[in-house]
């Protein structure tokens, strides 16, 4: 059961605190600069990425889908009843992750290369070989932002031609969600916010504890960071520390920003909901979090620990339902009105029915891990096989309607 006792460890007000009494304020915004936190409409164009915390380009073009790392494509659709395989692509098992997806291209990270494949055929369009990508690239406005060791670079999404590169003193995390004109990367214990146009450093801030990929969430130039020593920070638009909390835990998962709280899971399996005004732990749940990201929607926070997917109330932490996926897994994904999760198979669940309705269970010949991404009605699923690994594109079957309503 979740604990409702607020932590006595309050956020410490440090130099540069914004004094704004909302999550947007904690992230360094105030007045007219405050971004929107209301749920966007599923009709019409998506909100502008630099003005809305739940904004994206409508595809899985970054680690956690949107600026808040919610893993929630609220207006999207994906297979619900009769899935079929569009294509399978063999990849190296080391570092296997779900790809990022943007503008009809799928970005697959191999051990020693970044492969860019056509979303329809699965055929290679171009690749960046001879380098070791450190996680998923981010894609925005026709530019791919990727990291290999200590080099951050921007590539043309259509051709792979390098637009710029910048070297740092140590290994980098992959860039956080691209927001407007900024990228956010971690280098050991330092956070850098750099220009997306040319890679020049806007500001840097050293923290206590290693910033581990992909433990970054960002809105505009204001990151929300969880470090390897249990530090949770919100940084202002100039790098000032607004609030800070030491939870005496180790974080290696990305923080997720909800409408009312920020959520983060530590390596011992505890899931925290942090109140943005004071930084207190509003609620926590033991044996609830895994070593990958969580998913957030209007009503639920979804997290996997061991072989169990759990759905918690976003405000109270009450556990609504749980589901056994049959084997250890990673991050769930919410698309439209369906929650997708891996394990001994690919599962699609109806969250409105207590997690009890399995819309489909699809055997892909191996273990589905560690996460799932989506784009244009298709799921992209990493599968570990007995001898090797694949990324599998799963689309709706011929008779299935892809229309869906927003996730509950």
Automatic annotation (TrEMBL):
Residues 26-59 are annotated as: Disordered. Coiled coil: none annotated. Pfam families: PQQ_2 (PF13360). Residues 85-206, 307-381 form the Pyrrolo-quinoline quinone repeat domain. InterPro entries: PQQ_b-propeller_rpt, PQQ_rpt_dom, Quinoprotein_ADH-like_sf, TAT_signal, WD40/YVTN_repeat-like_dom_sf. PANTHER family: CELL SURFACE PROTEIN (PTHR34512), OUTER MEMBRANE PROTEIN ASSEMBLY FACTOR BAMB (PTHR34512:SF30). This is PQQ-binding-like beta-propeller repeat protein. It comes from Halomarina salina. The lineage of its organism: Archaea, Methanobacteriati, Methanobacteriota, Stenosarchaea group, Halobacteria.
């Amino acid at each position: 059961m979740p604990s409702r006792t607020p932590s006595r460890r309050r956020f410490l007000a440090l130099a540069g605190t914004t004094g704004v009494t909302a999550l947007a304020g904690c992230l360094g915004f105030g007045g007219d600069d405050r971004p929107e936190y209301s749920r966007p409409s599923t009709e019409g164009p998506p909100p502008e990425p630099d003005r809305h915390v739940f904004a994206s380009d409508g595809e899985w073009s970054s680690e956690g889908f949107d600026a808040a790392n919610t893993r929630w494509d609220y207006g999207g659709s994906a297979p619900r009843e009769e899935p079929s395989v569009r294509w399978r692509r063999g990849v190296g098992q080391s570092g296997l992750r779900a790809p990022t997806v943007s503008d009809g291209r799928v970005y697959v990270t191999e051990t020693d290369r970044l492969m860019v494949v056509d979303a329809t055929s699965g055929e290679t369009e171009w690749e960046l070989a001879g380098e070791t990508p450190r996680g998923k690239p981010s894609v925005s406005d026709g530019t791919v932002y990727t990291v290999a060791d200590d080099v951050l670079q921007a590539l043309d999404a259509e051709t792979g031609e390098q637009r710029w590169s910048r070297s740092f003193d140590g290994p980098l995390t992959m860039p956080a969600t691209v927001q407007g004109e900024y990228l956010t990367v971690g280098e050991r214990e330092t956070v850098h916010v750099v220009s997306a146009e040319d890679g020049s450093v806007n500001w840097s801030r050293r923290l206590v504890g290693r910033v581990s990929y992909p433990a970054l969430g960002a809105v505009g130039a204001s990151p929300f960071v969880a470090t390897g020593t249990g530090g949770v920070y919100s940084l202002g638009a100039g790098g000032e520390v607004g609030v800070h909390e030491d939870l005496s835990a180790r974080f290696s998962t990305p923080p997720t920003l909800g409408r009312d709280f920020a959520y983060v899971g530590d390596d011992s399996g505890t899931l925290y909901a942090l109140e943005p005004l004071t930084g207190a732990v509003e609620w926590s749940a033991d044996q609830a979090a895994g070593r990958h990201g969580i998913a957030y929607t209007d009503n639920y926070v979804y997290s996997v620990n061991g072989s169990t997917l759990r759905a918690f109330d976003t405000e109270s932490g009450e556990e609504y339902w749980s589901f056994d996926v049959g084997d250890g897994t990673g991050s769930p994904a919410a698309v439209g009105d369906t929650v997708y999760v891996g394990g001994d198979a690919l599962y699609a669940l109806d969250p409105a029915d207590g997690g009890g309705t399995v819309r489909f269970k699809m055997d892909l010949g191996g273990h589905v891990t560690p996460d799932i991404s989506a784009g244009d009605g298709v799921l992209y699923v990493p599968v570990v096989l007995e001898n090797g690994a694949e990324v599998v594109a799963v689309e709706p079957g011929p008779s299935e309607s892809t229309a869906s309503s927003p996730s509950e």
